[in-house]
Design brief:
By secondary structure, the chain is α+β, with helices and mostly antiparallel strands. The protein is built from 5 helices and 6 strands; from the N terminus they run ββββαββαααα. A hairpin with a 7-residue loop joins β3 and β4. The longest helix has 17 residues.
């Protein structure tokens, strides 16, 4: 899922979340990974897609939550998009913990007409990739491999 803030005609992607789910047909969410581990090519495709959605649906001075599926060959399917915040504590807890950006506070500032410093959106997606690698290196490798290879989930 993609969490964004749209402010004064600009779209700011704050976080990309990878979801760990059970197998089809149930697709129950078991966990979230922030930031999603994606290639630069896929990140750029997603950024363009979210910007295009924002323009087409006239998202401005609001947050948005977009659900995507990325196919095995890099194709992206939009599941849903809406000018609302994500649930499952993604926006309220996980995004501030992984980025330092409090989307809820930003949206309150926008709603009362307060000026927002562009530096507030400065958590760069490339920095997320480096941070995710550092976190992964600190985790127990055996536990991660067991979890990824579990027959009950898919990435």
């Amino acid at each position: 899922s993609i969490e964004s803030v749209h402010y004064k005609g600009k779209t700011h992607i704050v976080q990309m979340t990878e979801k760990i789910t059970t197998e089809f047909p149930y697709n129950v969410e078991l966990g979230h990974v922030q930031p999603a581990i994606l290639t630069t090519f896929l990140k750029n495709k997603i950024v363009k897609l979210i910007n295009d959605i924002s323009v087409a649906l006239k998202f401005d001075n609001c947050g948005s939550h977009t659900e995507l599926k990325i196919g095995t060959h890099g194709g992206i399917t939009i599941i849903e998009t809406s000018p609302r915040l994500g649930g499952d504590f993604i926006t309220s807890v996980l995004v501030p913990l992984s980025t330092g950006i409090d989307i809820e506070r930003l949206l309150v500032q926008i709603s009362i007409g307060a000026k927002i410093n562009p530096e507030e959106f400065k958590y760069i997606l490339e920095e997320q990739k480096i941070e995710a690698k550092n976190i992964a290196l600190k985790a127990e490798q055996e536990s991660i491999e067991e979890f990824i290879q579990s027959k009950y989930i898919r990435r």
